[in-house]
Amino acid sequence: MSGVGGMLGEAFYNEFNIDNLLKCTDLNPSEEWLQKLDFRDADSYSQQVNLFKPDWLFHIGAHTDLEYCETNPVDTYNTNTESVKTAVELSNQLSIPLLYISTAGIFSGKNDSYDERDTPNPIGHYAKSKYLGEQFIIQNSSDYLICRAGWMMGGGLTKDKKFISKIIKQIISGKKKLNIVSDKDGTPTYTIDFAKNVRLLIDNNKRGLYNMVCSGMTSRLEVASELISILGLTNDIEINPVKSTFFSETYFAERPANERLTSRRLNDEGMNIMRDWKSALRDYMTNRYLPLNQIGYK
Is the separation of the CB atoms in 87 and 143 below 8 Å? Predict the structure, then answer.
């Protein structure tokens, strides 16, 4: 498993470490189960994979900060696209399957929702670099599984750097009024369920491209409102709906207005174990995200 130091990587480790011998790597290892590897270094990547001789190659890491990607395009494509080419070459040489994690962000956002039959039209360097990775795998890999995630949630206080954690950290800091965008739609993906669903596909020898998101389409505004309700803070926290332009200085990278995915293939094949997003969010808050007592959780 390469690039597994983040919120999704931790979920994969916890799921697959149960009954597998794993080699887990990251550029900046922060856990005892991680070893250092810069998978942009093709020689080091090849050496470590060949020494371990895995049955699967999980290529998980990527630059996901859209502002970083817009201002650092060379590093973005080296990390998110060129490294994928090395992973494909290695998996083909060893005759093992390759797992690649893609994103809902590769669509333009003009449709009501997207399934696996829709053609991506990425905007921005992050989305383009991820879609190029997808395309290279589909065109060149002899054995692959691509799973697209939506708005990621998971990892808890230490690893979650996404929307949920940003809201909670504002609450912890004492803010009583939250500015939440009202013009962005999508579908959350709970890292715990995502890892379990990937395992289900692997155990059933499934291959190809799958959207893998929670059921129930929603918006940033609705997610924030539900979070506040789960925390029992509806009477204490005011949500102020704003347009995306309100945050244009901080979040200047263009984002699709709509990132709603549907897990069509999972549903058609009876392989969908992703919970609805409200249930997943409640599980995350009540069982995973600690310490909630700091923010008045009831």
Answer: no
Domain count, the chain: 1
Contacts of 216 (CB under 8 A, 6+ apart): 187, 276, 277, 278
Assess whether the previous peptide bond of 291 is cis (omega < 30° from 0): yes
How far does CA 103 lie from the centroid of its chain? 7
Residue 68: give the domain boundaries.
Answer: 7-295
In 155-268, at which residue ranges do the beta strands (DSSP E only) sit? 177-181, 185-186, 188-190, 208-211, 218-219, 238-242, 258-259
Instruction: Please tell me the pTM assigned to this model.
Output: 0.94
Whichever domain contains 285, its CATH number is 3.40.50.720
Helix (H, G, I), strand (E, B) or coil at 209: strand
- pLDDT one-digit tens code per residue, 198-248: 999 999 999 999 999 999 989 999 999 999 999 999 999 999 999 999 999
